[in-house]
Design goal:
This protein is an alpha/beta fold. The chain folds into two domains: 46 residues, no CATH class; 168 residues, no CATH class. It has a five-stranded mixed beta sheet with strand order 6-5-4-8-7. A hairpin with a 2-residue loop joins β2 and β3.
């Protein structure tokens, strides 16, 4: 069956329920996948063949179709905004505190690191919504992404726990990329921290880091 006969848009992602409402049974969907008329980037997510490809956005849209509450943050967001010099080993997803069940992805080539935030603010503050393939993609803004990189790094003296830390190399790459591509004004970075972080000791430590990094970055530009 051709895409024209399917009467489905190759620029839209469809769930099983979406296709069912359009009259496609699970059996017919399976046959269309086998015939190559439909592709299935993730289990339960389908797209008609022949659409334009944007690998990163396509992947994030497929994951968001599967888990609409997912917020992409940390290295996934850094890669999206051009603040990382390497591809992330994992896709980093944050969930709201009200979502108890973590998403499961059947694609073994899609390693995912899932965090369930204890505060609603972590899920909502500094989060942008991008629209792709008919799906809303929630992803942290450049300013929020930098704050997340810092607060999960060795430079945050208030961070506790045994989880993996962001290295200085990745942290400095992110801030250098922001200064080069977005702005050297650290005001929006500090404002984001003021809105998101309740602990004054953490906000002060981040402010000190911003001041030190800004001076060092500007000195390197001079020399």
């Amino acid at each position: 069956m051709t895409i024209e006969k399917l009467q489905l848009s190759p620029e839209i992602l469809y769930s099983v329920s979406d296709l069912s409402e359009l009259g496609y049974s699970r059996t017919s969907v399976g046959r269309l996948v086998q015939a190559g008329a439909l592709t299935s980037p993730l289990r339960g997510v389908y797209r008609p063949a022949g659409g334009d490809e944007a690998p990163l956005l396509d992947k994030l849209a497929s994951m968001s179709k599967h888990c609409p509450n997912a917020v992409f943050f940390l290295f996934t967001a850094a890669s999206f905004h051009g603040l990382a010099t390497r591809e992330p080993a994992f896709e980093h997803i944050g969930l709201p505190p009200t979502q108890r069940a973590a998403p499961t992805f059947s694609n073994g080539e899609l390693p995912v690191d899932v965090v369930r935030w204890s505060r609603y603010e972590d899920w909502a503050v500094g989060v942008e919504i991008h629209h792709h393939l008919g799906v809303d993609i929630r992803i942290t803004s450049p300013e929020r992404t930098l704050f997340d990189l810092w607060r999960y790094s060795y430079r945050n003296p208030t961070l506790k726990g045994t989880h993996e830390r962001v290295t200085d190399e990745n942290l400095f790459d992110g801030f250098s990329g922001y200064f080069d591509k977005f702005s050297r004004n650290t005001g929006p970075l500090g404002d984001l921290a003021e809105t998101l972080e309740r602990r004054m000791t953490t906000r002060n430590a981040y402010g000190d880091f911003l001041l030190t990094f800004e001076r060092g970055f500007n000195a390197r530009q001079v020399f």
